[in-house]
């Protein structure tokens, strides 16, 4: 692994600006600057400016958005664009989160377009891949995540592809309290690493952080993070409480 662990908080539809300010005050008091890891917050789009402002003194912590639209601009009421995300200070964009795919019907074609727009805007995409329980039970996990990865990289050149972040998030583990075992996570991460390797070569593939996400909490974070090929954590529910999140980032 040639990079620092990436520990990312996905706040989903939680924490408006007022809550976010209180969260940051409490969190920053117990989270001194850490040079050995990269922290990322994904607040709701409405809360991004508050979080960027609250982290002015902490350039070591990145802020991202949870989604962008698959077109650059136009008549798409309610959506946010890549350039708007960059304008408010986001550095990272989540793409293909399981809730986008399974609640909002995001397709592989849409993730292909989003990944290209994000890289053109020189932001970092964090592509989420993961199988449903049904796909897992059918033995299709590897083929599902490889298909999702291939779609995500389809319109990127090799240097753009080498600059992405990847998150393996089994759908059955998200928000369910059911976590993949460290061995399961390592096995799928190595499938993803091999797929990246055949596209980019081994050296570039080793530089792509592959995060695990799915019911990570302060009790299991350290074990998952120390599993082979796990380069970081993407955390939903357990990132909402400042004390719980501070304890996870210290894992
Ligand atoms: C997520 O939303 O990316 C996630 C992993 O959620 P949770 O940690 O709540 O399972």
Order of helices and strands: EHEHEHEHHEHHHEHHEHEH
Write down the CATH topology: TIM Barrel
Q: What is the helix content? A: 40-55%
Query: Approximately what portion of the residues adopt beta-strand conformation?
Result: 5-15%
Average pLDDT:
97
What kind of sheet is the major sheet?
8 strands, parallel, barrel
Strand order of the largest sheet: 1-2-3-4-5-6-7-8
- CATH superfamily annotation: Aldolase class I
> Could you list the spans in which at least 5 consecutive residues all have pLDDT below 50?
none
Please compute the radius of gyration using only Cα atoms.
Answer: 17 Å
Oligomer: single chain
Regarding CATH, which class? Alpha Beta
Domains (count): 1
End-to-end gap: 17 Å
Subcellular location: Cytoplasm
Protein name: Triosephosphate isomerase
Pfam families: TIM
Organism: Gemmatimonas groenlandica
């Amino acid at each position: 692994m040639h990079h620092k662990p990436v520990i990312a908080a996905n706040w989903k539809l939680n924490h408006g600006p007022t809550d976010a300010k209180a969260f940051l005050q409490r969190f920053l008091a117990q989270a001194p600057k850490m040079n050995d890891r990269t922290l990322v917050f994904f607040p709701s789009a409405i809360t991004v400016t508050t979080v960027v402002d609250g982290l002015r003194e902490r350039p070591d912590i990145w802020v991202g958005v949870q989604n962008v639209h698959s077109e650059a601009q136009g008549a798409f009421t309610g959506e946010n664009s890549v350039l708007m995300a960059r304008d408010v200070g986001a550095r990272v964009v989540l793409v293909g989160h399981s809730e986008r795919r399974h609640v909002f019907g995001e397709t592989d074609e849409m993730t292909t377009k989003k990944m290209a727009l994000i890289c053109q805007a020189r932001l970092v995409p964090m592509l989420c891949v993961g199988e449903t329980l049904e796909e897992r039970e059918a033995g299709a996990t590897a083929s599902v995540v490889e298909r999702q990865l291939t779609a995500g990289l389809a319109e990127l050149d090799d240097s753009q592809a080498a600059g992405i972040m990847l998150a393996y998030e089994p759908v059955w583990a998200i928000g369910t309290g059911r976590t993949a075992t460290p061995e399961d996570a390592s096995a799928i991460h190595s499938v993803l690493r091999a797929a990246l390797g055949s596209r980019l070569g081994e050296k570039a593939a080793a530089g792509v952080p592959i995060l695990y996400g799915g019911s990570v909490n302060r009790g299991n974070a350290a074990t998952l993070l120390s599993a082979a090929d796990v380069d970081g954590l993407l955390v939903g529910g357990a990132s909402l409480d400042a004390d719980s999140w501070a304890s996870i980032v210290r894992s």
